[in-house]
Queue: 4 jobs
Job 1
Amino acid sequence: MQITSLGHAGFMVELEKSVVIMDPWLSPFGAFDSSWFQYPRNHHMLSEVQDRLAVRDKEFYLYISHEHKDHFDEFTLNNIDTSQITFLIPKYRRTELLDRIQNFNSKSLILFEDGKSISLEGCTVTIFVDDQELNRDSGILLESDKSSFLNINDCKLYDRIPWILDRWGRPDVFSCQFSGASWHPVCYQYDEKEYRRISRSKKFSKFTNVARVIAKVNPQYYLAAAGPPVFLDSNLMGINFQEDSPFPRAPEFLEYLNRYPKDDNIQCDELLPGEMLNVKSGVFKKDLDLRQRIESFQDYVYKYSKEYAEYFNRFQKENFPTDPDKLFSDLIQILEAKIENFSLNHRITRPLYLGTTEIENDWIRIDFFSKKIEKTEEIYDENYYSIKVPGWQLSRAVSGRITWEDMMLTFREIMNRKPDVYQTLVIGFVVMEVEDVNHLCNYLLGLEQRTDRIVVEAGGNLYSVDKYCPHQGSDLSEGEIREERFLICPRHRWEYDLWTDGICISSNETINAVILEPDA
């Protein structure tokens, strides 16, 4: 097995009888309306993939983990010969990824349900599907006679790792995302001190989660991958250079891993675009010239961004809405359709204000409880969510040229919430499409109806708690205890205070913790 990095979360895995390509994002136009770009740049790897496909000596497979544009890159697929490729696709309730993949001329397509293993030419592929409505993602296990590679990229399968290891065994190579990719706190209005505190907390929470998983998996090799990108739009450039950034780079994480307790035989490294690992021999082939060019991160990014200055000016001008009134009118129609399908609207007790960054005093106010939508010139509620989006960006979501989630992942929005408490339903309402919002409601109701309980020990006491996290259903039996008081969710690091009935310290969710009396 030889693993070649394609950059970001992309790999090309060469086996004796087959080649498996994973999540190739090679577009020179970035992703999420060109807000994200690959670091280091990897656009040259497109010709590498094209050349490999031209040598028709093996079976070719292409795995797409999920529909986010830094994994499902239609530019790449439009520029390679897909006619000889078999697509390996996870099965989600929402069929957006499948529908788009079927537009390509492929040799065949295999749809995988969760945990399904299929024998292919000279290898076995298993895909693990994580479909939680608000998030859809998957991981892949590739096994040959001699080696195995477990790649969960962005997919937070942390609580399922013991089950995977028990059934499929320890993989030789493991890869997963080590950096965040969230608009919180990047897009929120915090003062500098609070922003840095939150960023640092999120960074080290992610580090801890991934380090724990690496120690559990105990592979021969861990490959740091799946981010973060760089932001080349002049309006976003500052994100690249923030102190205590929530988007740390691989060298910082690898340094952290050196201090984290784990088996000393695990070799942790990063493959840059075009670099290779021969799993059998353990030999890394590295691009020393590229590594030298990126030594000065700031210089590299500034030079990178200069090549796109004119592109951004043209792109944003071409998409700027000529009729703001019509934009707001169309937006209101979409919001009305969303809230009509939103069965848990009564649970949201504060309104959401939506506006554009160009017009300061022009808002659309959504009152969830009464299902009332109105235009207003000011925010007049004490408790509220607010989101301002550039008009040109909002128009692309309203017109359906990008999804609502893609719009939020541009990081071009400005957000605020008072009080500063996360609520899944509000975010779900914003990022999901009209036809999907009520599926989220049904999913959350399904979580609430689970009656499974577990017992955890903290500070010398036993507590009975709900087994599944109310956020996105993570198995809390794989969580950890902090400060003899807080139960930490293994996926997203939500902290539940066992001393206050298991209420989450950053939201109103609860795991209904009950202290158990000792036996008489």
Job 2
Amino acid sequence: MKIIECVPNISEGRNKALIDEIASVVTTVEGVALLDVDPGKATNRTVITFAGDPDSVIEAAFRLIKRASERIDMSKHKGEHPRMGATDVCPLVPVSGISMEEVVEYAHKLGERVGRELQIPGYFYESAAKEPKRKNLANCRSGEYEGLTKKFVDPEWQPDFGSTDPSVFVRTGATAISARNFLVAYNVNLNTTSTRRANSIAFDIRETGRVKREGDPLTGKVVTDSEGKPVFIPGRCKAVKGIGWFIEEYGIAQISYNLTDIDITSMHKAFEETCQSATEKGLRVTGSELIGLVPLNAMLEAGKYFLKKQQRSTGIPDKDIIHIAIKSLGLDELKPFIPEERIIEYKLESAFSKPLLAMNLSAFANETASESPAPGGGSISAYVGALGVSLGTMVANLSAHKRGWDDKWAFFSDWAEKGMVFQKQLLNAVDEDTAAFNKIMDAFALPKSSEDEILIRKKAIHEATINAIEVPFKVMQLAYESMDVMKAMTDIGNPNSVTDAAVGALCARTAVHGAYLNVRINCKDFSDSDYVEKMLKNSTALLGKAVELEKTILEMAELKM
């Protein structure tokens, strides 16, 4: 699923009713979850965070910018934070399933719409910048709101979108829109109260490093370049900003990091480097603290990193990997770390929970047995396939931890990870299949009173039917491909669990066969005969392969018993 986050900063931090009114606009868009509203009185500024699918997020961002421009008069605004508009900045951030290049396109789409429909002027910055000098937000915002009149007559600083008519921007100001990487605010705890020692570690780690000095690194004369500017010794980690401070509430010193690109320096990399620097200075890292939300993948990568150091399998459920990350990074030292409240994807799941996957086993069985036609055979096939590859994955994990097989843990861990990928995709297909059925029902329910309505209805039925054919075909492919895990585990896995791998193969073949039946029934009476012929040919061939592979696996299992 493609997910982006949007973090608009509006120039109002004191009027709660007004802040709530502007933030609530986000909730009027389906497919978007409002995650956080963080007002600041001194700055007179509020940071609003929401996320969802890209098109929905762009629509929500546009509505928020529009409402802020209607309700905030920048000619009357005062605050400590630099600002130039009612919606001062509106960064878009890739969270999962989407590239930065795609997010840049969405940023441009949003800005162009803001300029066209609202006339609000503004600039694209960071990855969305259309020229190098505009990448830096500080350049775009120089002069702030009060300097816009002068700025807009400068040919070098004409806005990327919107109007330079004072009748527009005197009230609304200007808005900066960007695409940027996810910024993680991450603090590392130390067993000291010394800010100076915490800063010393921060200087070791952060990208800018520390000022170079002659002789004594603490008291020596600062070395300068030919322009008289201080020379810096670079730190160990790129894309990291850091400073030490003392937190009276906790009674300890911390290093406060901004990880500006976790693809370059991850949380666990910053943590490990901090541990090393602290040890060199006679200090100890006691834990760490995340501020705000974090992408799921950042937690998973951290957990897998520490599991690999322990020579443990990484092909385990996400919740177990996250547990290792929390304990290894000490994220629960100062306060409980609750994944459902701190991980973006989990916050979204709670807002848009999958109705079937959210059920327990009894509820799912009872829902299937009810008078409702969905979930039906397609969803059950996907679930049976997920159970099958779960068994194969279990055997891989048991093999990775088998006494005497210590040299094989990484090999079986790779198989377990492969199995978990199939399991997640098949579980997602449980709800996808029911959703596909519901789309067909919705399409048939569309009005057909006029020629236009008839054409719209016909197109909707056509598209929904194709989707209802392709979802179970995808289940067939996934379930068949997952059988590689069961075959390998039957052949070379823990011999005490060979029957588990064989049962997994039985489930996978059942999933393929069940999904095949759904492909066939959904192809019935479909108007595109060439498409139907292709899908029936491909699905029949795939079923034949699954039956043969099941036979092979069962024969292998018989020889092992």
Job 3
Amino acid sequence: MGMLRVEARDCAAPPMWTIKAEEIPAEWERFETALTKTEEELMSLKQRVEKISGATEAAIFDAHLLFLRDRTILGKLNKELPSRLQNIESVYYAVVQNFMEVMRAVDDPYLRSRVLDIRDVLQRVLRNLKPATNAAPQKQEPVDSCILAAYELTPGDTADLDKSRVLGFVTETGSTMSHTAILARSLGLPAVVAVPRLVIDSRSGSPAILDGYDGILIINPSAETRKKYNTLRAEREKAYRELVRMRDLPTDTLDGRHIRLAANVEFAHEFKSIRESGAEGVGLYRTEFFLLGSDGRGMPDEEAQYEHYRRLVEACSPHEVIFRTLDAGGDKLPFEPLVEKEDNPALGWRGIRVSLSRPEIFKQQLRAVLRASAHGHAGIMFPMVSGITEVRGALKLLEECREELRERGQTFDEKMRVGIMIEVPGAAMMADVLAHYVDFFSIGTNDLTQYTIAVDRVNYRVASIFRVTHPGVVRLMARTMQAGVPTAICGEMGGDISLVPLLVGMGATEISVGAHLLPVVRVAIRHLSYEECRAMAQKALQAEDSATIRSLSHSLALKSYPQLF
């Protein structure tokens, strides 16, 4: 529970205070004065540029002037001001920010580029709004107790959130299976997505409750609702503390089958907490958050990567750390911008395809991981593998890196494990062949599902039919696990305690999840019988629909650990 903070990425929100209905004419008068002053500024700028560079260059300010008096914006403002009864700069800011976010979502480069012009006009108008003589701005809630509301958040935006200041977030766009939502769950950060009219209808400073379990945002909750959620939070925190006390217990099933329980990690500040969580090392370290977070200075060089990876290996010793090589698309690379937009980026230049096409950049990362392996127990895996050619290409470059390090006299683990992500149906179908080339598989359940059933997991129109228990997906997973090498689950499915029995029964040897999920998954595994899970999984593999498969697994989960539900 906290105060709602409506935020956009362009400029800081102005102070907000409530007004009375009879103050609306005075607010409009202030606004009209600001528009006139802004108009004079823009005309002056246009004339100066015209004298220096000519009429063509000066015409850029025509767009600014048109937006300044845009009927759609003014009409929306005229409607929202009496509805909100807030000072006009606060309402104008909300209306324009909502318009800008919609413009960003338009699939037209020219229209998206106009956002900068709109932002300039917004800032000028806000700057020219003369303060009201009777203004009494409300004291703003400290930023360390807020729920962030935004039109959208990218995974990078989410990664940058300070958990000590942000209690959770809610967005107008997105889906529960988007990378942003997945990252939020990995961070243990409550989040609700796809809330219609969020930005335009929300008011900064409003008390709110964010229920991440049921996907609910409650603005201005009643005293009874507050009491209910305070009680619920206390009960959940107490139950979670009980689970955490079991962190040192082995993750063995009732009949003695060990399942390695590891952590998915994204950020350096998580390194120290890995051992405290009871994880058996790191099953997935997403290196792209480090590689892409270098403030525009380009890819960190080999030495910087080595030092970063070494710290993680040492923090997890004697357990293993699995480093996934750069898994990013051409739309976001630290060393090369993608000039032309890809029509289908999920099927485009991403993952191992990018790395193999830029071998020198790729080899920097490979050498850095190899060198870090000398300080503990490390492994490496390649993402977005679709077939044997990519595996051979990556292994060839890895061997070249080994030779180069030997020539330098730099040590590394000669037996470091090498694996691949199984995310593409073609790779799953070829698992028996690929198993001859690598030491392990790691199934990315989200992408494997997306590619198998042709459902864009971030498209809200089809998100409801995104099902990891689709029979086709489950059979591909089982085929992968039967290929003869250890197989981990590092996707969202591993954190769903209803489906842990299915994963164990199909033969998963490792489950890697966000650190906050480790206590729950550990208890689930310890209450399962492997033989019982195996029998259930055989039935699931014969099922004709996803609902039956989920029901079979959920029933066994409910029987085995009812206390977790």
Job 4
Amino acid sequence: MSIRDKAAQLVFVPFYGEALNTGSAEYRKYLRWVRDLRVGGLVLVNRVRDGSVQRAEPRAMAAFLNRVQREARVPLLVASDFERGVSMRVVSETKFPHNMAFAAARDPELSRFAGETTARQARALGVPWILAPVADVNNNPENPVINIRSYSENPEEVAAHVRAFIEGAHSAPDPVLVTVKHFPGQGDTDTDTHLALAVLNADSKRLNAVELAPFRAAIAAGVDPVMAAHIAVPALDSPKIPSTLSRAVLTGLLREKLGFGGLIATDALNMKGITNHWNAAEAAVKAIQAGADVLIMPANPERAIAGIVRAVERGAISRRRLDESVRRILTAKMRVNLHRKKYVDPEAMMDALDRPEDIARVDEIAERAMTLVKNEGSLLPVNAAGTAFVVLRESARGEQGQVFAAEVRKRAPDASLVVLEPGASQAEFDSAIEAVKSARAVVVAAFASVASYRGGAVLAGGYPKLLETLIAGGPPVALIALGNPYLARSFPRVAAYVAAYSPAPPCERAAVRALFGEIPFRGKLPVTIPGVARYGDGL
């Protein structure tokens, strides 16, 4: 390999899993990246059009991957953020809840199942590198981007689920790479790194006891790559340097103190926590100098590669250092047998996806996670007669809330049921209040999940004012948090509160079943809700 070929192996570029026409400009872009630049791999991401998230269709993605693999001189390593199973990025009916639901169910064996299932499905899709699990300890209720992606605020509990996920993934029939993120721990931050550089203000003693515990467990369990976070840690390095670009963090702490010898990957280098301060070439060079091996989605792949080549030619990066990273990447590709199995088998792929037994197990996870935090006057389970329902969706697009509404209709066809969008007018809010004011009780299903670039997991638009009005209006209110469990802090006067931890459809179904008394509430809080409930609470 030439220096340029080696530099390109470190760079992984985004793709959407669409079956592109080979004459299109977008396909020619990939052809240049893969055949001419010879990048090391691809990262599957969602395409967002007009605010709507579009996931890859499996057969279309298989066609695209087989085409580009044929063009690659060295097989491409394909990765994706399958934190909630493959359905996070691919059209699939096996829709896992967010991680916090697993901890609420208090059973790491469920995380082991998630790891094995995700690995089996990912490999069948042609994605042998899983950018999961999340090892962050969410001990900051204000965290805008980790939140329910974390298992818990308890480092031992996070470690147990991380270990189980890794072991489950490694037990799958075909080998995969499993990643822990976001090193050295992003749970106690209050800034979305997609928008700006976050800072973790914790001393070395606290870091060692809390943030690093799940990463030590992951390394002991044989995790493959570790992903670095775009967070500054003043206890380890300058408050202006993200861990992604910090030699003290990646080499001093991760390599030398923790003894990790596998791949180190950056978080996405096109996030503003990086691009606000460094261009693509600067970020690439600094990341490699810090100890990173894989550069995930640089803002400009060609400039990143050129920057590495110039750095090697002038001695800012030694050839030996470059070879270390390339060797780790090629070894990882061989570990997942890309030299023998780089193409997707469409028929085997469809057999691996959406097995009925997998879907049933996911429903079980959601049901076991349902946590009853508060229940004044034994409001829950509800009586179908006289109960009104209000659904607060996060977006006017997508299917969120549809399962909840349909399940309610099955059980209470005559109940008042109002579904609202965040852009609803005051007249629509007034109409909703009027529709439920004569009910004996009101159930509000509130969707508030974490998402990149959103800046927080809070109720959108005029929802908070509407909810306060409903609470003050007379009938007792039961609030169901389909996402952020900390919502109860803002509405302490609700009569009943249920944490469902995720907007995933299985959690919508499970919430309705629990509301109507068809299943018991068995979950326990994996986090403390300040002023409301303690870690481990659950009626």
